């Protein structure tokens, strides 16, 4: 075959492979968009583990009608406009790829209404490229149907709805723990699975964490708040007694962004080293904040991984902070040291 340029749709479908792995990745991208839009309430409603339908609704700033077709175009974003802006980026999105990627592998409808507009407008790129008037309250609604319907090779990799919903639940939990000031609801097949009101104080925040990590977490959680070298670590770690057979109760955030990071996880594990058997995993919800220029958030297409400029420094700081919090618990007479 001679060399030829790929058409735009195929380029998007290939790129979508990096961003849209499964329904949970769609939830993550769309809720991040709602958070970037300043929403105070976000609803996530899925059917059949998101395979049949995903609906995200927010009360954020909305997209003006004349920008709807740009919103679903590739490499179109309102969040950065230069390399400088990328290096200091504080929004969750910046690649301008999510909506276009999702639209290339599913049927997407974006309905939005900005404050002050007398109506909403909707665009469905698989049907037409022009927005049409629609019903809707101020804010944005994104509906995604028929994920991978026309891409059997990808559809094959999806699991049963119950498994896909587990992944959705995890993504939802991460997002809910990343913004306590926002209210979140999750529904699956019409049944409410979580309703988290916006939190106004530390008690509410701890309750939300306990809702996500399980009731007993509330009794075993130890607050962490340590600062050094321009970094701060806050959140909760569970006493060793609340350890798990699986590493499924570990939530880490860097500058408000849910991440998984080997350096970070290793540092926490190391702090628990003498308190937990090898097969047990600590439970924690930890927030690291540091100068945004010390961390590269553009290291991964789904932005789930970050790269620290000085990973040794981060590792030592997290290790020392968690060790100190654990030592304080050990010193408490009523906390039995359980393995
Ligand atoms: P990115 O988030 O990287 O900018 P997306 O493809 O996710 O790229 O979104 C493209 C643009 O559409 C965003 O930059 C934003 O201007 C707009 N947008 C998407 N979702 C929303 C939303 N829920 N509320 C308001 N604007 C949105
Ligand atoms: Mg986005």
UniProtKB/TrEMBL annotation:
A cellular component term from Gene Ontology for this protein is:
mismatch repair complex
Q: Which residues form the signal peptide?
A: none
Keywords, sorted A to Z: DNA damage, DNA repair
Q: Which GO terms describe its biological process?
A: mismatch repair
One GO molecular function term of this record is: ATP-dependent DNA damage sensor activity
Q: Which residue numbers delimit the DNA mismatch repair protein S5 domain?
A: 209-327
Function description: This protein is involved in the repair of mismatches in DNA. It is required for dam-dependent methyl-directed DNA mismatch repair. May act as a 'molecular matchmaker', a protein that promotes the formation of a stable complex between two or more DNA-binding proteins in an ATP-dependent manner without itself being part of a final effector complex.
Q: Which family does it belong to?
A: Belongs to the DNA mismatch repair MutL/HexB family.
Please identify the protein, giving its name as recorded: DNA mismatch repair protein MutL
Organism of derivation: Salinisphaera hydrothermalis (strain C41B8)
Organism classification, top ranks?
A: Bacteria, Pseudomonadati, Pseudomonadota, Gammaproteobacteria, Salinisphaerales
């Amino acid at each position: 075959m001679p060399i030829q340029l790929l058409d735009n749709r195929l380029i998007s479908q290939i790129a979508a492979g990096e961003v849209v792995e499964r329904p949970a990745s769609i939830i993550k991208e769309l809720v991040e968009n709602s958070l970037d839009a300043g929403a105070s309430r976000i609803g996530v409603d899925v059917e059949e583990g998101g395979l049949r339908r995903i609906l995200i609704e927010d009360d954020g700033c909305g997209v003006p009608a004349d920008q709807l077709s740009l919103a679903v175009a590739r490499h179109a974003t309102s969040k950065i406009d230069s390399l400088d802006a990328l290096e200091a980026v504080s929004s969750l999105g910046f690649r301008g790829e999510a909506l276009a990627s999702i639209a290339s592998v599913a049927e997407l409808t974006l309905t939005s209404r900005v404050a002050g507009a007398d109506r909403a407008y909707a665009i469905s790129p698989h049907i037409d490229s022009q927005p049409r008037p629609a019903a809707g309250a101020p804010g944005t609604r994104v509906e995604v149907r028929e994920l991978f319907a026309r891409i059997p090779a990808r559809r094959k990799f999806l699991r049963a709805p119950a498994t896909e919903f587990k992944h959705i639940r995890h993504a939802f939990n991460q997002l809910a723990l990343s913004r306590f000031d926002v209210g979140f609801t999750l529904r699956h097949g019409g049944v409410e699975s979580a309703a988290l009101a916006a939190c106004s104080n530390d008690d509410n925040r701890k309750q939300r964490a306990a809702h996500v990590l399980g009731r007993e977490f509330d009794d075993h959680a130890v607050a962490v708040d340590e600062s050094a070298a321009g970094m701060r670590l806050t959140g909760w770690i569970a006493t060793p007694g609340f350890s798990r057979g699986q590493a499924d109760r570990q939530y880490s955030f860097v500058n408000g962004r849910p991440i998984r990071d080997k350096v970070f996880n290793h540092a926490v594990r190391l702090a628990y080293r003498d308190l937990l058997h090898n097969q047990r995993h600590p439970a924690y919800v930890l927030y690291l904040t540091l100068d945004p220029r010390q961390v590269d958030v553009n290291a991964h297409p789904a932005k789930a991984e970050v790269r620290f400029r000085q990973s040794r420094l981060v590792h030592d700081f997290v290790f020392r902070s968690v060790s100190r919090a654990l030592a304080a618990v050990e010193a408490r007479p009523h906390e039995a040291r359980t393995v």
